C-alpha cells in the first residue's frame, strides 16, 4: 500500500472521528442558552438535504465506507440539531411533522433504490449549490442578527477542517469531480461562517 493511500485512510479515520462530535458543540450551545437566535432554519434544512443526498449517492455507488462515513454520522447529529432549533423557535407543528414523515419515506426510498437511481444522478450536481446555500443562509442569519451567541465556532471550525481533509481523501478514493467540487466550496464557506461567528462574539464581549 502506498504512502499516499495510507495517508488518505488515516485522514479518513481522523475525519470520521471528528465528525462524531462535529455538531455537538452547536447542540450544547443551544441547550445551554435555550435559544436558537442567529441559527438559520433554512440553512439547516439545506444542510439536511445535502447530507441526505450525499449519503445515498455514496452508498448506492458502493464507494469505500471510509470515504463517506462522516455523512451518516453528521446526519444523525443534524436531526438532533434541527429538532432543538425548531423547538426553541416554536416551529414544531402538524405540517412540520408531516414534512418529517415525507422526508424519511424519500430517504429510505433512495437508500434502498426503491426510487429510481437517476434521481440521485440528477440531484448530486445540485448538492454543491445546496450545501453552499445552507452556509450562505447561516452567514446571512449571523450578519442580519449581528449576534452569534447561539452559534458555535467549534462546530464550524471542525466543519472547515473535515471538508478540507475530504478534498484529499476523495481525490485518492474516487477523484469524483462532483464530490471534490462540493468539498472545496464547503471549506471556503464554512470558514466564512466561522470568521463571522468569531467576529460578532468578539464585538459582544467588547460591549460587555
From TrEMBL:
<feature type="transmembrane region" description="Helical">
    <location>
        <begin position="96"/>
        <end position="115"/>
    </location>
</feature>
<keyword id="KW-1133">Transmembrane helix</keyword>
<dbReference type="GO" id="GO:0016020">
    <property type="term" value="C:membrane"/>
</dbReference>
<dbReference type="Pfam" id="PF04193">
    <property type="entry name" value="PQ-loop"/>
</dbReference>
<feature type="transmembrane region" description="Helical">
    <location>
        <begin position="177"/>
        <end position="198"/>
    </location>
</feature>
<feature type="transmembrane region" description="Helical">
    <location>
        <begin position="72"/>
        <end position="89"/>
    </location>
</feature>
<feature type="transmembrane region" description="Helical">
    <location>
        <begin position="36"/>
        <end position="60"/>
    </location>
</feature>
<dbReference type="InterPro" id="IPR006603">
    <property type="entry name" value="PQ-loop_rpt"/>
</dbReference>
<protein>
    <recommendedName>
        <fullName>Solute carrier family 66 member 3</fullName>
    </recommendedName>
</protein>
<keyword id="KW-0472">Membrane</keyword>
<dbReference type="InterPro" id="IPR016817">
    <property type="entry name" value="MannP-dilichol_defect-1"/>
</dbReference>
<keyword id="KW-0812">Transmembrane</keyword>
Amino acid at each position: 500500500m502506498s504512502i499516499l493511500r495510507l495517508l488518505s485512510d488515516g485522514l479518513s479515520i481522523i475525519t470520521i472521528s471528528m465528525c462524531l462530535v462535529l455538531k455537538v458543540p452547536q447542540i450544547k450551545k443551544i441547550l445551554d442558552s435555550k435559544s436558537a437566535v442567529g441559527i438559520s432554519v433554512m440553512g439547516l434544512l439545506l444542510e439536511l438535504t445535502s447530507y441526505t443526498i450525499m449519503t445515498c449517492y455514496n452508498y448506492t455507488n458502493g464507494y469505500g465506507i471510509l470515504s463517506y462515513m462522516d455523512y451518516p454520522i453528521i446526519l444523525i447529529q443534524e436531526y438532533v440539531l434541527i429538532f432543538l432549533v425548531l423547538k426553541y423557535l416554536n416551529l414544531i407543528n402538524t405540517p412540520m411533522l408531516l414534512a418529517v414523515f415525507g422526508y424519511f419515506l424519500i430517504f429510505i426510498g433512495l437508500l434502498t433504490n426503491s426510487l429510481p437511481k437517476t434521481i440521485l444522478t440528477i440531484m448530486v450536481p445540485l448538492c454543491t449549490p445546496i450545501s453552499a446555500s445552507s452556509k450562505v443562509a447561516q452567514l446571512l442569519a449571523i450578519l442580519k442578527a449581528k449576534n452569534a451567541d447561539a452559534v458555535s465556532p467549534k462546530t464550524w471550525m471542525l466543519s472547515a477542517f473535515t471538508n478540507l481533509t475530504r478534498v484529499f481523501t476523495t481525490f485518492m478514493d474516487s477523484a469524483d469531480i462532483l464530490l471534490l467540487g462540493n468539498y472545496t466550496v464547503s471549506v471556503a464557506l464554512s470558514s466564512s461562517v466561522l470568521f463571522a461567528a468569531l467576529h460578532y462574539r468578539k464585538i459582544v464581549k467588547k460591549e460587555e
